[in-house]
Design goal:
transmembrane; MetI-like_sf; about 325 residues; Sugar ABC transporter permease; transport; mainly alpha; transmembrane helix; 14 helices; about 75% helix
């Protein structure tokens, strides 16, 4: 009898495993077949190219990826280069200011839009319009505006304000703020739309309860509404952060990394070494460091966002 019971349990376990495998691999086969090209693209293009980049960053490749393995020499040379260190510092400074100001201004504009103002659709379109432009166009427009001779400074001086100065793109100490203005002009509208969608998802009963309890409006936004918009905030941070890490075209169009190398960024460093400087190994080492930075930021966030939920449940 005992052997029979054990046999039945083993049979039930095997049947359950077969059912699980059948449900996993044989369920909805047409959809899985349709997804194969996408999976192959991800494996070959993204994973394959990433591994290729990391491998050749440990070689002394110059014009072509044919160099021999040299270990960490490219990375040692990378961090000994002042241009790379300046580019990293610039990206950190620009990124911190851009992230904070984009989120803050986007949320404040969304709060204003949420007051059911007249011509809301027109204002929303106007604020979102810069996001439809490429960073190249944005950079060129703001380059004309900030040009010390032909732009705002020259125009106001011709009108009689001889002492007016607005030469930020030619000033090494102010050039990052020039980039910041152009970046905010393009990105704040998109962040506003995201925040506005989150605000419109808040139940009206919450506002009624807050008014009955006498909670000030600003306190309701900070203590109640913002925590409820956690998903929207995370989405905004991820989108803005990804744009900051790959910052390149705005810099090329507005300052081209100048004056000197005062507005250099890592993406421009990678491009210059790979295509202009003829040093693929050095460019790939810089690209690998950018990838490592993204991984260091994203892995803890992904663990807290998904892994932590599984443990708590």
């Amino acid at each position: 009898m005992a052997d029979t019971a054990v046999y039945k349990e083993e049979s039930a376990g095997i049947a359950g495993q077969r059912g699980f495998l059948r449900k996993t691999f044989l369920h909805n086969i047409p959809a899985k077949i349709a997804a194969l090209p996408m999976v192959a693209t991800v494996l070959v293009v993204f994973v394959g190219c990433t591994l290729w980049t990391v491998y050749y960053s440990f070689t002394n490749s110059r014009l072509l990826p044919t160099g021999k393995f040299i270990g960490f020499e490219q990375y040692e040379r990378l961090f000994a280069t002042s241009r790379w260190n300046i580019s990293v510092t610039n990206l950190i400074s620009y990124g911190a200011m851009s992230l904070v100001l984009t989120l803050t201004l986007g949320f404040l504009l969304a709060v204003l839009m949420d007051q059911k103002i007249r011509f809301e659709s027109a204002f929303r379109t106007i604020m979102l319009y810069p996001f439809a432009l490429s960073f190249i166009v944005t950079g060129l427009v703001w380059q004309w505006i900030m040009n010390p001779t032909l732009g705002l400074q020259g125009t106001l001086r011709n009108l009689g304000w001889e002492g007016f100065t607005f030469d930020w793109i030619a000033n090494p100490r102010m050039v990052l703020f020039a980039l910041l203005i152009a970046g905010l002009w393009q990105g704040v509208g998109f962040c506003m739309v995201l925040m506005l969608a989150g605000l419109r998802g808040v139940d009206d009963e919450i506002w009624k309860a807050a008014r009955i309890d006498g909670i000030p409006t600003w306190r309701t936004y900070v203590s109640i509404v913002l925590p409820m918009m956690r998903g929207v905030l995370v989405t905004a941070v991820v989108l803005i952060g990804s744009g900051i890490v790959r910052l390149y075209d705005l810099v090329v169009a507005l300052t081209n990394g100048g004056p000197g190398i005062s507005s250099e960024v890592p993406a421009k460093y990678v491009y210059n070494y790979m295509f202009s400087g003829g040093n693929i190994g050095q460019g790939l080492a810089a690209a690998t460091m950018m990838l490592l930075t993204v991984i260091i930021i994203m892995v803890p966030w992904a663990y807290l966002e998904f892994g932590g939920k599984g443990r708590r449940s």
